[in-house]
Design goal:
The chain is an alpha+beta fold. Helices cover about 35% and strands about 25% of the residues.
Amino acid sequence: MSAVREVRGLRLSLAATSANLGPGFDAVGLALSMRLTVEAQVAVGFKIQATGRDAELCGAVENHLILDTYREVLEGAGVAVLPLHLKLHNEIPLGMGCGSSAAALLAGVALADHFGGLGMGDAGIVAEASRREGHPDNVAACWYGGFTVSAVEGDAVRVATFAGDPAWEMLLAVQPTGLATKKARALLPESYAKVDAIFNVQRASLLVAAFAQGRLDLLATAMQDRMHQPYRAEACPLLKKLLPLAEEREIAGVALSGAGPSVLVFLGAETTLLEAEMRVQRVVGPDVEILPLRIGSGVERTLL
């Protein structure tokens, strides 16, 4: 036990993410400035102290995605599972299309890598978390930060990322009730018309260029979509209310955040945060939470 207790603790800070961003279905992700912070130390038994958003849910040891992932990765590698004491501080809305599961999966895999001495490296951690998530877009953006495009190739995840413009401002509209990703995916068709596929390829390509060149003026067109948003609109009422704002000069673009139901609104270059908040709040009503955001950075790791 004395050798076990010499293992240093680890602090992780992981970003919320918004995937898809209109046409970039299962390929594009954007890190957001909300964070999940995890401090882990070896302990005599598993324990969690949680603060921040949804603290009661985050603090339950049973059926905890971080701890379950941590155990599963170590057991799969044939390595002893060291009990951990976790201190969590969460800013990410759960079940709202903001990448909470991707952040938790990455935390669990990264903790297993650290405390089990697995030597996975960044690519290995991202690949394992992506496999568990089922798609890499949120995972890659959470780990690497900024605007990220990712693709699965065999057991690996190919990733290209760039920081994006730190001056860009966004609002996230969060409705009171969540939407399970499994349910949101069940709403999608099995196939698409050629014209719709071409429509999305054009706009997804334009979306990458818009972020690479800092072109807010391209977002209104670049965030249009025919692959997932139209089919999820009934289950995501905020989207139907907010999409028309993309036609206004004050708003640069609007898209469903991940699988929904939250909606991400990009502010125009000349629009103040207060103006945009008031405009969005008038459209969605007083019961919808409005969160101001910026583009987020990648994972931060510190030994304790």
